Amino acid sequence: MRIALVEDDVSLAQNYSDIFSRADWRVSHYISRASALAGIEESPPDLAIIDVGLGAEDEGGFQLCRQLRATPATERLPIVLLTARGEQSDKIYGLNLGADEYCTKDHSTDYLIAVINSLIRRIEMDRQAPRVDRSKKVIGSLEIFPDESRASWKGVLIDITVGEYWIIERLVELAGSIKTHRQLMINGIEVSQNTVTSNIKRIRKKFKTIDPNFKAIETDFGRGYLWQKDK
């Protein structure tokens, strides 16, 4: 397991590197967004831990997350945003950009290790073929695998993040019923309407990559979204 640690505080980065090394994880440390982007694109790690504030760039970590999600080679890279900023709006923004987790620096190292281990299990699942009986649920041409946070459309796996999976799972509960943005939660956090809209756009785009005629997610303007089976 190789971790890309993007942290401008060298002493703090060394502390994290020592902790990760004791868990037998190799660490590549970067102190800036530019060096991290170049290094990660050249040799993609298994997981990235990114500080939000990077030197003079107060939101450099957010920008790096956006860039990594927009690059085909790293769009599925598990990303943990690690920061001293604990405001809910920042957490929502980070998740909206595609981060898998958002941890504040006041969390214990045990908590961070638990988060990383959770993502490692996801990585290992991604490297395996999905098991036929993994609590699969079938909604028309859609299959969802709750234990693995996966989904497939017409037999083809959709390349989605955990957060995107949760939105799909909530949409298909009582297919045909409208879900307001308040009902579409990411990681237990109530999100804004703009956040839901951007996630829905990404989800639609991923389904249409497989099926250009995909129309199962409908917008009820002013109210929310609904899933229409086999549309």
Task: Report on this structure.
- The chain contains seven helices and eleven strands.
- The protein is α/β, with parallel strands linked by helices.
- It folds into two domains: 2-126, Response regulator (Rossmann fold); 137-227, Arc Repressor Mutant, subunit A (Orthogonal Bundle).
- A five-stranded parallel β-sheet has the order 2-1-3-4-5, sandwiched between helices.
- Helix 2 (33-42) runs parallel beside helix 3 (60-69).
Feature tags:
alpha/beta; Rossmann fold; Arc Repressor Mutant, subunit A; four-stranded antiparallel sheet; 11 strands
Structural category: alpha/beta
Instruction: Please outline the major beta sheet.
Output: 5 strands, parallel
Question: What gap, in angstroms, lies between the N and C termini?
Answer: 41 Å
- For the largest beta sheet, what order do the strands appear in spatially? 2-1-3-4-5
The CATH topology of the largest domain comes to Rossmann fold
Described by its quaternary structure, the protein is single chain
Q: Bin the strand percentage.
A: 15-25%
What radius of gyration results from the CA coordinates? 18 Å
User: Helix and strand string, N-terminal first?
Assistant: EHEHEHEHEHEEEEHHEE
Task: Tell me the name of the CATH class of the largest domain.
Answer: Alpha Beta
The number of E-state strands comes to: 11
CATH-scheme architecture of the largest domain:
3-Layer(aba) Sandwich
What is the count of distinct domains?
2
